[in-house]
Structure formats: structure tokens, C-alpha cells
């Protein structure tokens, strides 16, 4: 039951992040994708054009005061999470601006914070930066998980690179992940979410107190938690390069190869296969022709 609730919470997270009341990552959109003003090939998508509802004025104010925004957000992450970050993108929302950031060094992750803006007085409220519950904490945890299990993640990267090359598939650009990602540890092909924070409370507390301990120590800390594989949700997203319709046979082939591959990170894996187009206003690439292997039929690696 806890995992079901968490999966629903993750879907809600993407709903909030997309700023769109009708488009959710795991829903199938029925829009006409022939509108070239909205849909572009995933290889060309960098996050440019990404919008949140009612954010025009706040975005203008935030970008006119970008230096203030960057300094405030960097201070927030340093004080609250002992983490240095780089600001990549600022997107206006109804009450302020959503600021997409990337950690500097290890652990490596993407996330975002929100800075309120007084539109009437055109003032950035730099002392009131905040983040949504567990958003940054989960991002740090996923980054630490990947750092502590570098060999297994190298194997996963090699596996997905091979799949992409063999079947003419691609993923999102690094620029898109930096500018509108905000989903913890992520690569061009996959990202990680936390389904259950409880086993990792000690790890997070250790990071806040001792952020610079060595890689092996992080590995031992994760090992000692005895976490269930389902605690980590690893979502693999693949796109056809030539805008061919995703085929169930190909998805099944990829899933079978994943099941047969050893020495991968523990986790519950889902695979989503999309065509080549992305909505540049939302960053979403899942539509009515997308197909997936996911919960409750995901692939669990022990």
C-alpha cells in the first residue's frame, strides 16, 4: 500500500512540475502532434519553451533579477543541505519562480527550489526560498545511491547504450535534463525516484552532517539499511529516432534483455517507449501511442 501511495505521489509531482492540469507523465495524450509549433524531435529539445501556469510576470521579474535569484538559491542549498549547486533555468510560476539546479560534484543530482516573488512590488523574496516536501532530500538520496554503487550504474549505462544503438533509440538531451529535469539522479535515458524514504533517513542525516565522506562509506551505509529493491524506482525512457510508432514486440525484447542482465543496481525498473516527439511547453513525451512495462508489472532487480 505504501508503494502504491508513493507511485501516485510521484505522478502528482510531475503534474505539478508540468504546470498543466490535463497532462500527466503516465497518461496518454490524444492531441494532434502535427502542430510543429508545439512538438519537436526529442533530439532537439533543450527545455526552451517550457512553461508553468500563470508564470509570465513572475518569470520576467525573476530573470531581470537573475543574480539575486541565483545567490538566494545557492545560499538555500548550502545552508539547508550542505550542497553546492549550479542554477540552470528559471521558470515563472503563479507565485514565484521554479529554479532548476544541478549539484556540483558528488553526489550528482538534479532538483529544483521555489523562490517567491511579490509581483505588485516586483520584488524577489530572497529570504523565503523553499522546496517541496522530500523533493531535495530524495534527490540527494538517489545521487548518493548512484555514487555508492558506481560499478552497477556503469553496467546499467552500458546496457542502455547498447539497447539504444541496437534498436535505433534515443533519450532526452543533457540540456533538457538540466533545464527542466529536476528529478534526482538522472541520465539521458533514465531517472530514479524514491518509493520509501524511511530506510534512508540515517543516510540523509549523515550527509547533512558529513557530506564529504568517501564512496566506500556510502556503500556500507546503504548496505546496512537492508532496503527493499522496490524502494528505488528506476524509470527508463526511450524514444524512437525516426518517429516510428513504438512497437510492443520491441518493448518486450528490451524488457527481456533487462531481466537477463546481471550486476545492475537494485531497484524496481519500468520501461517507457515513445515516438520521437516532445511537447516543448511541458517536456512530456508520453502520448496515446506510448507503451510501457511498469508497476505492477515492473522488473525488480535484487
What characteristics describe this protein?
single chain; 302 residues; alpha+beta; six-stranded mixed β-sheet; four-stranded antiparallel β-sheet; flat; disordered N terminus
Characterization of this structure:
There is one protein chain. The protein is flat, with a radius of gyration of 19 Å. The strands form 3 sheets. Strands 6, 7, 8, 9, 11 and 12 form a 6-stranded mixed β-sheet that branches. Strand 3 (96-103) and strand 4 (110-118) form a beta hairpin. With 302 residues, it is of the alpha+beta class. It has helices at residues 2-18, 56-64, 66-81, 135-148, 150-166, 174-180, 201-209, 215-225, 248-260, and strands at residues 39-41, 85-92, 96-103, 110-118, 123-124, 169-170, 190-194, 232-240, 267-274, 277-279, 291-293, 299-301. The model is unreliable at 1-32 (pLDDT under 50). Helix 4 crosses helix 8. 37% of the residues lie in helices and 21% in strands.
Short description, anyone?
The chain is of the alpha+beta class and 302 residues long.
How helical, in percent, are the residues?
A: 25-40%
Number of helices: 9
Q: Mean pLDDT, as a whole number?
A: 90
List low-pLDDT spans: 1-32
Indicate the overall shape. flat
Radius of gyration based on Cα positions: 19 Å
Largest sheet: 6 strands, mixed
N-to-C SSE string, H for helix and E for strand: HEHHEEEEHHEHEHHEHEEEE
What is the strand tally? 12
N-to-C terminal Cα separation, in Å? 20 Å
Assembly state: single chain
Strand content: 15-25%
Task: Return the structural class.
Answer: alpha+beta
What topology emerges from the helices and strands here?
Layout lengths: L1 H17 L20 E3 L14 H9 L1 H16 L3 E8 L3 E8 L6 E9 L4 E2 L10 H14 L1 H17 L2 E2 L3 H7 L9 E5 L6 H9 L5 H11 L6 E9 L7 H13 L6 E8 L2 E3 L11 E3 L5 E3 L1
Parallel strand pairs: 8-9
Antiparallel strand pairs: 1-10, 2-3, 3-4, 4-5, 6-8, 7-8, 9-11, 9-12
Helix pairs in contact: 4-8
Amino acid at each position: 500500500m505504501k508503494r502504491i501511495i508513493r507511485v501516485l505521489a510521484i505522478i502528482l509531482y510531475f503534474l505539478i512540475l508540468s504546470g498543466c492540469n490535463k497532462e500527466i507523465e503516465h497518461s496518454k495524450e490524444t492531441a494532434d502532434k502535427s502542430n510543429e509549433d508545439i512538438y519537436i524531435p526529442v533530439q532537439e529539445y533543450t527545455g526552451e519553451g517550457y512553461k508553468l501556469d500563470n508564470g509570465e510576470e513572475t518569470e520576467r521579474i525573476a530573470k531581470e533579477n537573475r543574480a539575486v535569484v541565483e545567490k538566494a538559491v545557492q545560499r538555500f542549498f548550502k545552508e539547508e543541505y550542505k550542497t553546492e549547486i549550479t542554477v540552470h533555468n528559471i521558470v515563472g510560476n503563479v507565485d514565484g519562480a521554479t529554479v532548476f539546479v544541478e549539484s556540483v560534484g558528488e553526489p550528482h543530482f538534479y532538483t529544483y527550489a521555489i523562490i517567491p516573488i511579490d509581483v505588485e512590488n516586483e520584488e524577489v523574496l530572497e529570504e523565503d526560498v523553499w522546496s517541496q516536501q522530500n523533493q531535495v532530500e530524495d534527490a540527494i538520496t538517489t545521487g548518493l545511491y548512484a555514487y555508492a554503487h558506481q560499478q552497477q550504474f556503469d553496467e546499467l549505462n552500458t546496457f542502455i547504450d547498447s539497447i539504444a544503438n541496437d534498436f535505433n533509440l534515443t533519450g532526452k538531451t543533457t540540456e533538457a535534463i538540466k533545464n527542466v529535469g529536476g528529478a534526482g539522479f538522472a541520465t539521458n535515458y533514465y531517472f530514479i525516484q524514491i518509493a520509501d524514504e524511511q530506510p534512508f533517513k540515517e543516510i540523509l542525516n549523515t550527509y547533512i552532517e558529513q557530506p564529504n565522506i568517501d564512496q566506500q562509506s556510502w556503500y556500507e551505509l546503504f548496505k546496512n539499511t537492508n532496503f527493499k529493491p522496490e524502494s528505488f524506482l528506476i524509470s527508463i525512457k526511450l524514444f524512437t529516432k525516426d518517429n516510428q510508432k513504438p512497437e510492443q514486440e520491441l518493448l518486450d525484447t528490451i524488457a527481456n534483455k533487462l531481466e537477463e542482465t546481471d550486476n545492475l543496481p537494485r531497484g524496481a525498473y519500468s520501461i517507457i517507449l515513445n515516438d520521437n516527439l516532445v511537447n516543448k511547453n511541458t517536456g512530456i513525451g508520453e502520448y496515446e501511442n506510448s507503451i510501457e512495462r511498469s508497476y505492477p508489472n515492473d522488473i525488480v532487480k535484487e
